[in-house]
Amino acid sequence: MGTYICVRGWIEYREESIPQIKAVISSFIDKAGDYRFDATGAEMYNQGWVIPDTHINWTHYIFYGADIRIQRLSYIRDQLKTLSKEIIHTKDRATDYLKGIFHADHEDGTESYIWKLSEGEFYEEKITRCSQHE
Questions:
Q1: What is the pTM of this model?
Q2: Whole-angstrom Cα distance, residue 42 to residue 122?
Q3: Pairwise CA distance, residues 47 & 129, whole Å
């Protein structure tokens, strides 16, 4: 059947960045072979991204949520790494980067990840727990 990991989180962004963000996410379809699956599988995992058509007030958010095969974790992680480094907004000498936080929890509860996007960097914290079956 396979082992799954639940990935969910959000990114805060500027409206002007939407085309760039969509381009980065889509570009990973062409890289599917690097992750040992095909374009159809990559398209399926990209469906976890939700980019709302409208927003409330001034802050825009993009969301990701999906239960994915553990072997595909690097596909989503690398998308986040790329987004954190490549999406930059500069205005009046001020530079803004994407901000966000994601949680990835193994289905058996033995390991979890917290991923943060901040100041153009991707940070990962791995949390290992004892097996629930011990």
A1: 0.91
A2: 21
A3: 30
